[in-house]
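Notes from the 1:1 (GR / supervisor)

We went over the backlog. Supervisor wanted to see one worked example end to end before approving the batch request, so GR pasted a single chain during the call. The sequence is below; no edits were made to it. Supervisor asked that the structure be written out right there so they could see what the output format looks like.
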Amino acid sequence: MSASRRSGTTDELGPDEPEQPDQPDRDGADLLAALLDGMDAALCAFDADGVVTHWNREAERILGWTAAEAVGRHGFAGWAVRKADAEEVEGRLMSAMEAPGRQVHEFALLTKDGGRVLVRTQSAAVRGPDGKPAGVYCAFSEVHAQIDLERSIALSEALFEDASWGVVLVDADLRPAVVNAHAARALGIGRTAVLGRPLGELLAQGVEELESALTHVLAEGAPPAPAEIWVSVRTPEGEQRRCWRCGFVRLSSPLAEEPVPLGVGWLFNDVTVAKQAEQEASLLRFRGNQLHRAARAAAECEDPAEAATIHLDFALAGFADHALIDRVAGDGSLADGDSDVPVRLVRVAATPSGAPGPSLLTGQAGLPVRYAEGHPALQCVERVGPVRASVGSVPAERAREWALARQWPPDAVHALCAVLRSRGRTLGAVTFLRGAGRSPFERSDAAYAEDVAMRIAAALDLAGALRG
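Structure output shown during the call:
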């Protein structure tokens, strides 16, 4: 059944007109009916007398009345609207003939099976060739569907304007297509400058992991939980390491018969501060447990010197690759007023430089270690405080020479020396060494090294007292 009357013109709504033999006009009427039936919105139209002239398939779906049952009726009274409401509804619809622009109304319509549907309508006048109102068209949809659409649009606009987390729409080629203000600030670039650029130009590190996640979402769909991705962002101050908690959703076209991926919606929030605090808390718990375990193990040693090596071994776990204990030569300690006396150190314990294993006691001969002037261990003893040293960015051969010149294992590139203090005297220094696969020592590492040094110094002091 056609969604509208056949008439000799398609741009004027009015009473029945005689069928015209002109084939182009009939084709135009068929085209109009096909267009109306293919619309996503329900549409009906009235002529100037209030007679229904058009009724499409979406209107039939919502109310149940077919085009054959609707076209030709006068208004909605008695079939699509309750009689008590018919006058008000028709008056509001037909008032659009005299009003400029579109009129929006909400009211309840009746379905064919007697139910009621709350709809939102947009009505406007239809002008004839002379410019005078010839009728009214009315597009309507269920209120809940319209509200859902408005909410979706409002949510989309809010996400790309006011959201407190980053929102990026990535196309199927893994290039940003839309970016909100928060994401642009996180990437350190303008909203328009980021569009269409490869992710590799926006991030210094973490691109491979991010692109892998986006590719997976395009192929398999959204992951069940957010993912935390570490990236490095280029900024005017240099590269900054950031942790982003990311969520992904696959975007598909609602207009295609089969799901066609349009890209990926990528939402992220910067959790770097919280992640770093979590890592620091976990590290502190681990180190505290190591100190506790070392103290319990050292308490079972008959020889205090062996207890010192146990503290050293427990401290190495997750902290350093090698460790050395150097004792002050001669009496084994220095008073605070002995700053004029040249400092010489004797190696008393060291971890194996080859295969891993427990620390070994050495230095029975009492020969001083050939430390050059300005050596970090000597500085540590002289300053009575921790000293950090690092080879920096140099070739591997230069790094090896740097370590050997300081009497350290050849693979050492970072060093941290902590002073051994007991009963107000300086006993020596403990040195922790890291290889090239580890980061340099930080201030928090120095605090932990001092805790370990305090326990080692107490054990060495006790060993010296027992020997005396």
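Supervisor's comment: Residues 1-18 have pLDDT under 50 and may be disordered.
Batch request approved.
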